[in-house]
Amino acid sequence: MKIALIAHDKKKDLMIEFTKKHRDYFEKHELYATGTTGQLIIDHTQLNVHRFKSGPLGGDQQIGALISEELMDLVLFFRDPLTAQPHEPDVSALIRLCDVYNVPLATNIGTANYLIEYLNAR
């Protein structure tokens, strides 16, 4: 599977802990991430991650392009719903693309855990 990992600033620590917890699962798949999130995942897990630009600099759009080309299987996007994001239109577009192309999307840790545990059991 091709899996995108994205996290807003206040959710990056949560993404790191999540990828550490599920490292065995993630190492079997192709991982993609926005810039800073990807580097943090690499630094803390040594997983191989293809990094795009940071979200506000177009990373969300780069992942969206893969979704529109039907080249992404799963998106895990830990959003911070309580902080205004300067690139909110890009975030909305990414979520919309997941819906258009039927790509499973988790925007919080509860859904992400459920999806990974379900997929890992298959």
UniProtKB/TrEMBL annotation:
InterPro entries: Methylgl_synth (IPR004363), Methylglyoxal_synth_AS (IPR018148), MGS-like_dom (IPR011607), MGS-like_dom_sf (IPR036914). Substrate binds at residues 8, 12, 34-37, 54-55, 87. GO terms for biological process: methylglyoxal biosynthetic process. GO terms for cellular component: cytosol. Its EC number is 4.2.3.3. Keywords: Lyase. It is an enzyme of class 4 (lyase). SMART domains: MGS. The active site is at residue 60. GO terms for molecular function: methylglyoxal synthase activity. Belongs to the methylglyoxal synthase family. NCBIfam families: MGSA, PRK05234.1. Catalyzes the formation of methylglyoxal from dihydroxyacetone phosphate. This is Methylglyoxal synthase.
